[in-house]
Amino acid sequence: MKIKKVTKAVFPVAGMGTRFLPATKSIPKEIMTLVDRPLIQYAIDEARAAGIKEFIFVTSRGKSALEDYFDHSPELENTLRKAGKDDLLEILKETNMDSGAIAYLRQTRPLGLGHAVWCARRLIGDEPFAVLLPDDVIAAEKPCLQQMMEAYEQTGGNMVAAMEVPPHKASSYGVLDIAEDMGAIVLAKGMVEKPKAEDAPSNLAVIGRYILTPKVLSNLNKMKQGAGGEIQLTDAIAEETKTGKVYGYRFRGQRYDCGSKAGFLQATVAFGLARPDLREEFGAYLNDMIALQKAAQ
Ligand code: G1P
């Protein structure tokens, strides 16, 4: 099967991040940092590792810090150069994008994730594309989107990252209705956005990594409001289970829901402990904290 390479990715970053107020009053939530890197950097690194060359950001009012983040900073770079701080200059390189490799467009009204992705339709054109939700941070030996690209080379069609969740959590996710379970890859016959526990068609939830056919964009043209009164990406993908193919992919890795405070804190601890320069000191501190807590009980 000849499958077209995926080189474009959409990053929906228009959300207001109200769960992180007051921090998000003046900074986009995607700039909030896990250790010393903003959430968005993790998503960009993952996309680059998967072969993405064009990065499309769907933004909204108040997100200009994101544009600055990916721009060159001549003053800062000069200062670091003069001070001989080559290691920091090297780190800054990860934040730079070639001119023309990154595009920003605005979702002017908060009409939902499906609508945000639809806003990018002209930049995507008639090609398969990826979508990454930066709130979902995935720690994995092989980056999640890369795992999916390899699976997609076998299957084509549409592919969503999938993870088992307990029934009471189904209402926080898009949930797959499974036609055939082939292990890492499942074929879906439907998808439901944020079902009640008793209505969930399976325990396989969609996590924020997608490889989609352009057909999903044309489905979004005619999508009506779905769950929560929003235009849902899930509904437009579910349409494709009727005429095309939709696969779920059980990725290998640990996903952190950095859209929630608890998830963000868990990710901070995990990424802190994973850092060779912090592991020892931070790990010792955590052990002390746990001992103190136990003693107080
Ligand atoms: C979005 C999607 C949902 C998916 C989730 C993964 O929901 O609509 O289908 O399961 O991301 O994080 P949100 O978390 O933006 O409400």
Structural features, described:
- The radius of gyration is 20 Å and the shape is globular.
- It has a single domain (8-259), classed as Alpha-Beta Complex (Spore Coat Polysaccharide Biosynthesis Protein SpsA, Chain A).
- The protein has helices spanning 39-49, 64-69, 74-82, 86-93, 113-118, 121-124, 144-155, 214-221, 233-243, 261-273, 279-296; strands at residues 8-12, 33-34, 37-38, 54-59, 102-106, 129-132, 136-139, 158-164, 174-181, 185-193, 204-212, 246-250, 254-257.
- Strands 5-4-1-6-11-8-12-10-9 form a 9-stranded mixed beta sheet, with helices on both faces. The protein has a two-stranded antiparallel sheet with strand order 2-3. A two-stranded antiparallel ribbon has the order 7-13.
- The chain contains 11 helices and 13 strands.
- A hairpin with a 2-residue loop joins strand 2 and strand 3.
- With 297 residues, the protein is α/β, with parallel strands linked by helices.
- The protein starts with 7 loop residues before the first strand and ends with a helix.
- 36% of the residues lie in helices and 24% in strands.
- The mean pLDDT is 93.
- Bound molecules: 1-O-phosphono-alpha-D-glucopyranose.
- Residues 113, 133, 136, 173-174, 193, 205-208, 233-234, 259 line the site of 1-O-phosphono-alpha-D-glucopyranose.
